[in-house]
Amino acid sequence: MAAKAQSAVGFVAVLLLFAGCRSAGVPDESPGSRDSERIFLTVDFEPGQTLRYKFVSHRDMVLDWDPNALGADQTEKRFERLEMVNAYTPVMVDPYGVSTIRVVCESVTVERSGRQYGVDAAESAAGKTFSFTIDPRGKIVDRTELDALVQEMGAKAFRSGPSGGRVKGPDMIGDFIAGQYFLWDAMSSVEAPASGVAVGRTWRSRLPVPLPMVARRARDVTYRLSEIRTDKDKPLAIIDSVYSPADAAPTDWPIPYSGRFQMSGTFGFLGSYRVLALEGAGQESFDVDDGRVVVDRQKYTVRMKASLPPMGIRADPHLTIEQTLTTELLAP
Asked: CA 260, 264, 268 angle in degrees (round to 5)?
């Protein structure tokens, strides 16, 4: 508790220099907020203490080749699943500024239904080590080594085609990115964090939408500090979230591959994917004293429309994706 208080006070002291000396006593402007419940959402690491997180991304997909067609069922059902365990060890801890974290990707496994195209490129991250720097809000400051690993995974997604061109197999690198880059998004996206967060307050952010095809899509997120629970004498901040389609993905998000290439499978055959709807919700438990995510669950549904290449085939392909993302702190 003392370490958490020192970190929070240090963080506030630094931010007050840049925030016009706003204090935690300023009433919250969000409807229904209670100033007495105001807390500081800071991410803390203790020297020498390793935190291990398990991240799971699972999506069930239904491809309907023509929803308006009469007669036989024209749907295909598929799934993809990535499971990853990362160990985070602080190399240098600065509660007033930027800390350096070493990450060991202990395991990555991918499974999917349908035709297999070899080992998924995301699985090549297993056993790799990288470092990044992070501020007390949970925002990654320097991600050079992490970006290099994403590029390395991206290169492994390709093989040479019959004509010598580049052909990309299915991969879940986007899911790896979603689980790694945005682990502390709920905390790092708080505006004016030096003022603290009161129960009932809402704030906004933007998160990625990992997909089975090559398409950069994002979802707008509205977070809400819904309550503060007590679990084993520890205060847990319960942060709810709801999702809606975003108009674009931020340009600074990592891209694992570039250039001209073809994509294997049905999702490479189809094209011009358009999001028709996206909706869902999630909930995160955050240990206020220790400054760490305990568990985070996100679930949403994406409905998309695709087009066929000009081959004289008559169809109206629609895709429904049920996506679940789970992050859980493992026992030491």
From this structure: 70
Among 175, 173, 140, smallest CA distance to 257 is for 173
- Separation CA 16–CA 26 (nearest Å): 13
139 and 184 Cβ atoms separated by less than 8 Å = yes
pLDDT at 145 over 90: yes
Angle at 11 between CA 6 and CA 15, to 5 degrees: 150
Computed on alpha carbons and rounded to an integer, the radius of gyration of the chain in Å comes to 22
Across 65-215, the runs of DSSP E, i.e. the strands, are: 75-92, 99-112, 129-134, 140-142, 158-160, 166-168, 197-199, 202-208
**pTM exceeds 0.70 for this model:** yes
**Mean pLDDT of the chain, nearest integer:** 87
Extract the tokens encoding 21: 């000396």
Q: List the one residue out of 263, 269, 274, 264 whose CA is nearest residue 308.
A: 269
3-class SS at 35?
strand
- What does the alpha-carbon distance between residue 237 and residue 284 come to, in Å, rounded to a whole number? 8
Paired residues of 327 in beta bridges: 55, 296
**Which CATH number is 28-329's, of 3.30.420, 2.60.120, 2.40.160, 2.30.230?**
2.30.230
